[in-house]
UniProtKB/TrEMBL annotation:
It comes from Thermus parvatiensis. Gene3D superfamilies: 3.40.50.2300. Residues 1-132 form the Phosphotyrosine protein phosphatase I domain. This is Arsenate reductase. The keyword Isomerase does not apply. The lineage of its organism: Bacteria, Thermotogati, Deinococcota, Deinococci, Thermales. SUPFAM superfamilies: Phosphotyrosine protein phosphatases I.
């Protein structure tokens, strides 16, 4: 399955979610191709790189991109939006796909502890999603929110 994580700027939450999904797919032996993108292009925030490095996940090679910069952008089995602004833009996604939405708080401008809370919630949600996909099922938005602890 191909998974696309969408956020507004592809600078923090979607980047962290991409890294977590790739991590859990590898750990759990699930064949996933994961990409992230933003409705607008920006840059990967240093705080995101820092808090992900704390858990051994490296975002140093990541860069912000729009949907049109990911490979085969209209062929994703799942599009996961992780902020409300991206969800509003997502209904225009013309391809047939499953869509899920979990709104994570934006940690921008907040202390690193807030970044860590968002990182950990994304990690819990990503693990739950990959475990469900391994079982052959796609969880609901509510199940993903509960797994994240939101």
């Amino acid at each position: 399955m191909r998974v696309l994580v969408l956020c507004t700027h592809n600078s923090a939450r979607s980047q962290m979610a991409e890294a977590w999904l790739k991590h859990w797919a590898k750990v759990l032996g699930v064949d996933l191709e994961v990409h992230s993108a933003g409705t607008e292009k920006a840059f990967v925030k240093e705080e995101a790189k820092r808090v992900m490095a704390e858990v051994g996940l490296d975002l140093s090679g990541h860069f912000s991109k729009t949907l049109f910069e990911v490979p085969d952008p209209w062929d994703f089995g799942l599009v996961l939006t992780v902020c409300d602004q991206a969800k509003e833009a997502c209904p225009a996604y013309p391809a047939r796909t499953e869509k899920r939405h979990v709104s994570f708080p934006d940690p921008t401008g907040k202390p690193l502890e807030e970044w860590r809370k968002v990182r950990d919630a994304l990690g819990r949600m990503a693990r739950f999603l990959v475990e469900a996909l391994k079982e052959g099922r796609l969880p609901s938005d509510e199940e993903l929110r509960q797994a994240a602890g939101l």
